[in-house]
Design a protein that fits this description.
Order of helices and strands: HHHHEEEEHHHHEEHEHHH
Mean pLDDT: 84
Radius of gyration: 24 Å
Largest sheet: 7 strands, mixed
Structural class: alpha/beta
Number of helices: 12
Low-confidence stretches: 292-309
Number of strands: 7
Strand content: 5-15%
Number of domains: 1
Distance between the termini: 55 Å
Amino acid sequence: MNLVHRSRRILREDGVLSLLWRSVRFVWTTTVWRRELVQWLPASAVALAFAVRSRLLPHVSDANPTRPIRVDPDEIEYYHGSDDPWRLGHVIDSDWDDPEGRFEETAVYRSLEARFLEGDDWAETELYAEYRDRLEDGDPYWRCTTEAELEAYFERIDDLYESMAEEGYRSQRALLADDDADPREENTDAVHPVVQEIGVNVYRDGELVKKGAGFHRLAIAKLLDLEEIPVTVRVRHADWQAVRNEIRAASSRAELSERAESHLDHPDLRDVVPERWRQSQPELTADAEHEASGADGSEDDDDVPVPQR
């Protein structure tokens, strides 16, 4: 369908405002907001663009995707398939929040575990066999279109493991600030490196599920038993976003629903939960404080593993 026919259909079915908005979005995404151009912008400019977008568009979270959240890598137990939602900052309802499988059962994780913890050669791993077979069958993985690229790909994973073992997880912002470690060449999944941390989606119950960039980095973080890593939240379920909205709107902890209060320590809520609310006991109303004080008014008192060759 050409653009004229499509425009007529949108105008007929959705009205002039919808046509105007879609036209602006089309021009923006095809001429301005392109990775080839945007990835050279400073991180602050990208953050501002996402902040403006969150105010103008419906179904977009208040959380800025350029500000990663920090989580224990072991909290990410599942992963999404390729057809699941992935657009940065989007809020989506319905029953999409169903994982494809456990992360530690993926070929990536099992192969890196065999390589770095069990000392196998890459050629003995499941991932190497899969990419080699695809190359021989004429359907190569896009990063491994030749034998040389196949070998170079696995050498880069070795280098990544050694770097993370020695230096820990370096964020994309840290790499951007390092003249010797420009991450733009490895930015394959996002419009800018600053939103290219390990990607996750957030389910309606707050579950963090792997989605998008960073399968190798997450696998290595788990194998190295790192305590905390930055992750980029790509999509939030509408029910989870409702929890964020409730907390942002509340003036005190006592106003929160039981559900919202049970999630106050969740990593995706650190930016909206006041520090004074992060207590073991909920805030008490005046009546509850009087009851608690009693009738007389008195108060109750590693070592990091190294690569094996």
